[in-house]
Amino acid sequence: MAGIYIHxxxxxxxxxxxxxxxxxxxxxxxxxxRALCTELKTRxxxxxxxxxxxxxxxxxxxxxxxHEDFEQIFRTIKEVYGTEHAEEITLEAxxxxxxxxxxxxxxxxxxxxxxxxxxxxxxxTLKLLNRxxxxxxxxxxxxxxxxxxxxx
Length: 152
Fold this sequence. Notes:
single chain, four-stranded parallel β-sheet
């Protein structure tokens, strides 16, 4: 089984507990996506023609990307590796990014699994962790995802 992990390092704010590389410099997104697509092409030989079964977008905050950003990345993956065997395609997301419009946009892409970073529903703890969402936003995001057909 082969999988691809794609690190999207962009965040609106930095959470105090996060040890992953991230940046709040959103002006670097397009340059990063171009470099990422180049890297996907140069790494093809590492998989020795194994079919890709999982694709995972982690971060950072991958839900900071726009539709056209995901389209460019998925187009590259499909051209280089193929996606016909990809059974699980996951996006890490922050609850406050999952507006009705954003969730609808996600349904137009190959994502079939969302990993939402809620951490807690406790307001003081969310504030301490420097999380952008509150409990109500997290619950609303869960409902939006369910209504859109995400079942995980």
